[in-house]
Design goal:
Layout: H1 2-33, H2 38-49, H3 63-78, H4 86-91, H5 93-97, H6 106-121, H7 126-150, E1 154-156, E2 160-162, H8 163-184, H9 192-208, H10 214-230
Antiparallel strand pairs: 1-2
């Protein structure tokens, strides 16, 4: 029984590794193969990695999702310009090139957010991970793409933003959260009120966050908002 449970968890863990590595590889080649911008490649990576919360409910122990996320903290750091090993940085140039524009620790922060949420909530409350990560994945990607193309009404708190981008952030966050709720039918997560509120908080936090740091702030405050609303704290 225990061996079977370990096998199932290891299977999902390996599947996650293969999925993430494939997405990283595909993202680093998209500009050359499909002739799309590096920004679009970055957002593709952002969104696709953000799909991992849909797999988290299949794990039966927190350690396995943590082991999925933790190695990518080191991997993305070594691929950043802040790496102390410049030879490794040069060899991982493909990954370095698709790190967040303007803040090249963005993917490191993304991995840190995943690891923190998985450590505490992977098995007991996997929907908390979804509440933290999905707004960052889908909402932020929508905000960036819509804001760049259609953003006319600008505002600035710390970084330059647009009302159109913030509206896309809210809509992308809400739709992704609602989709998770409908797919897994978690009753505690099953109200549109919670999804709307979390999406609103994520949008506000993203609007106040410096570029790159929203990979930390949005997951944290989105997850915290969900916990407060659902009585999890």
């Amino acid at each position: 029984m225990i061996i079977g449970e370990v096998f199932v968890n290891v299977f999902w863990m390996i599947l996650c590794y293969v999925y993430v590595l494939f997405i990283i590889f595909a993202s680093s080649r998209m500009d050359k193969l499909l002739h799309i911008s590096r920004k679009a490649s970055r957002k593709f990576l952002h969104v696709m990695i953000g799909n991992l919360p849909f797999i988290i409910p299949f794990f039966t122990s927190n350690i396995y999702p943590v082991l999925v996320a933790t190695p990518f903290i080191l991997l993305t750091f070594l691929a950043s310009p802040y790496s102390p090993f410049k030879n490794i940085y040069k060899k991982m140039k493909g990954l370095a090139d698709i790190t967040e524009e303007g803040h090249q620790l963005g993917l490191v922060f993304y991995a840190v957010s995943y690891t923190f949420l998985a450590l505490f909530f992977a098995v007991s409350k996997p929907y908390v991970i979804a509440a933290g990560i999905l707004p960052m994945a889908y909402g932020d990607a929508a905000a960036s793409l819509v804001g760049e193309r259609y953003g006319k009404r600008k505002y600035k708190v710390i970084a330059n933003k647009s009302l159109e981008g913030s509206a896309a952030m809210f809509l992308g966050s809400f739709l992704s959260l609602a989709s998770f709720s409908l797919l897994y039918s978690f009753s505690i997560f099953g109200t549109f009120f919670i999804a709307i509120t979390v999406a609103a908080v994520a949008t506000l936090v993203e609007g106040f966050s410096p570029l790159g740091f929203d990979n930390l702030t949005v997951p944290f405050f989105s997850a915290l908002t969900f916990l407060l609303l659902s009585g999890g704290i």
